């Protein structure tokens, strides 16, 4: 009976570690997507050090989780007590790091919103219509979310080009294409003094915040799932480690 429980525990632990390994790959992939996607809102935030640090932390946690999943699989299959002990210790550290990260996200949410608003104001102020990656992303956001400015179209009154122009200019991506009667541009500035030119009256803040909340929810959901796997992994590892009386290193394959 005891041997059967040990065998079942060993293979269940292997299964949990395989899931843990795959979950780490998902976390790392999500961090890479946030960092490298040229059409995500984070391109607008490319000057924000905290945002970049958060992406690198996600990538690091994902890679470390994959490594620990591999170590756990190896320790479970070959019943190596030192690897299982290392595995449990690292799981505890990862779990603590996840709790701290979740607490920071929750309690620093207002600080994050202020940081985003500050960066967006800089983007609007310095927008020149030169089709840089940041400007393309902001045009993409306004066009697809059907919004103009951060809180409203009045936010564009701080733009240097708009302020210094003798014409009444607005980014072409602000144009409400439902009322467009001729060809329209997706980028740069347009002269809005034409009778048929109408812009979106809604700001992008609500839509972008919903986008961020959705993606943060995905991250937190993945972390919660990984935490449950970690707890199960710790329980199974401790049970297996206690019932391994001596390490049999002859089971480890030689290369």
TrEMBL record:
Transmembrane segments: 12-36, 56-77, 84-107, 216-241
GO CC annotation: plasma membrane
Gene3D superfamilies, per database record: Tetraspanin
Keyword Transmembrane: yes
Subcellular location per the Swiss-Prot or TrEMBL entry: Membrane
Top-rank taxon: Eukaryota
Annotated family: Belongs to the tetraspanin (TM4SF) family.
Protein name per the record: Tetraspanin
Gene: LOC115041349
């Amino acid at each position: 009976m005891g041997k059967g429980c040990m065998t079942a525990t060993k293979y269940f632990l292997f299964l949990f570690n395989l899931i843990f390994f795959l979950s780490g790959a998902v976390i790392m992939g999500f961090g890479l997507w946030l960092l490298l996607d040229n059409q995500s809102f984070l391109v607008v935030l490319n000057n924000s050090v905290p945002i970049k640090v958060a992406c690198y932390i996600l990538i690091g946690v994902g890679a470390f989780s994959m490594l620990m999943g591999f170590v756990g699989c190896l320790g479970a299959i070959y019943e190596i007590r030192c690897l299982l002990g290392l595995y449990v210790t690292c799981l505890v550290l990862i779990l603590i790091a996840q709790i701290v990260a979740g607490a920071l996200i929750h309690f620093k949410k207002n600080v994050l919103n202020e940081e985003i608003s500050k960066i967006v104001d800089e983007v609007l102020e310095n927008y020149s219509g030169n089709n840089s990656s940041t400007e393309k992303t902001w045009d993409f956001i306004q066009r697809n979310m059907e919004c103009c400015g951060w809180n409203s179209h009045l936010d564009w009154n701080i733009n240097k080009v708009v302020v210094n122009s003798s014409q009444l200019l607005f980014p072409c991506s602000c144009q409400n294409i439902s009322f467009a009667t001729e060809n329209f541009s997706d980028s740069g500035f347009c002269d809005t003094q034409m009778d048929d030119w109408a812009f979106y009256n809604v700001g992008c803040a609500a839509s972008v915040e919903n986008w961020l909340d959705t993606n943060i929810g995905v991250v937190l959901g993945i972390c919660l799932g990984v935490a449950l796997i970690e707890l199960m992994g710790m329980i199974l590892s401790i049970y297996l480690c206690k019932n391994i009386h001596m390490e049999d290193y002859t089971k480890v394959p030689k290369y």
